[in-house]
């Protein structure tokens, strides 16, 4: 990593096998616009203005019509735990290719601002973003809940087939693209297991409102917890908040409360929630849940795209209202 000055080279050492050291990312991506901010860095939309020619290091000019997401993580002298965690996450993600899982497609170093850039598919929004619009009267129809759940189950079934548990399934980590496809993101808490090592783990991770209760009570079977978390996310899609949101996080119950309007939802949805929240010893796998009648009732992509358009209309209305409130006129 000779192209990096002393401390930058040192902090990047854990990730040297994953970084494309031969490319200045600003020759590939331009017109960055911040779209999200997190604890570890910001996410930008960016236009693709160049690509690396296959078999060479030459840059091929692109017209900029394609847009991707770039996560920018600041580098600091001495390094950070986030970079060490990224090594584990990238090592894991190198094994994963699935249409319902958000992949990290490239890693670069932006020397102009001492940042690590991670290229990903640009997604429309998170499920959590959609649920926040409930204050404007937005609710997810049951058919959309079923379709989103089906996508997530496909991701979880695939992960289980290669011995991986996500351990942080929740609305913030379920992203939807413009085609209406849900993709599971953020594998920072994921773990692997093998038939030899087994799936028993210790230590609770993730966020307590979506956390399987057995994670808080000693050793647990990691292959079972994602189904519980998905069930909690289904409960959240119906209620717009996760279960136990008003409880002391140190004293979260082990059983979900009933839905506030149970009559609005089908018997198959109630049965699905019951299956997800069953004891680990009898809790169905993601693959088993794909055959349930609730999942078979998914609405399909065109209707999901219409719902996404409704979300955009609501957001536009909010922005116009905020403009009036701040300026007295619509700008």
From TrEMBL:
<dbReference type="Pfam" id="PF00069">
    <property type="entry name" value="Pkinase"/>
</dbReference>
<dbReference type="InterPro" id="IPR051931">
    <property type="entry name" value="PAK3-like"/>
</dbReference>
<protein>
    <submittedName>
        <fullName>Kinase-like protein</fullName>
    </submittedName>
</protein>
<keyword id="KW-0418">Kinase</keyword>
<keyword id="KW-0547">Nucleotide-binding</keyword>
<comment type="similarity">
    <text>Belongs to the protein kinase superfamily. STE Ser/Thr protein kinase family. STE20 subfamily.</text>
</comment>
<dbReference type="InterPro" id="IPR011009">
    <property type="entry name" value="Kinase-like_dom_sf"/>
</dbReference>
<dbReference type="InterPro" id="IPR000719">
    <property type="entry name" value="Prot_kinase_dom"/>
</dbReference>
<feature type="domain" description="Protein kinase">
    <location>
        <begin position="29"/>
        <end position="295"/>
    </location>
</feature>
<keyword id="KW-0067">ATP-binding</keyword>
<dbReference type="InterPro" id="IPR020635">
    <property type="entry name" value="Tyr_kinase_cat_dom"/>
</dbReference>
<dbReference type="GO" id="GO:0004713">
    <property type="term" value="F:protein tyrosine kinase activity"/>
</dbReference>
<dbReference type="GO" id="GO:0005524">
    <property type="term" value="F:ATP binding"/>
</dbReference>
<keyword id="KW-0808">Transferase</keyword>
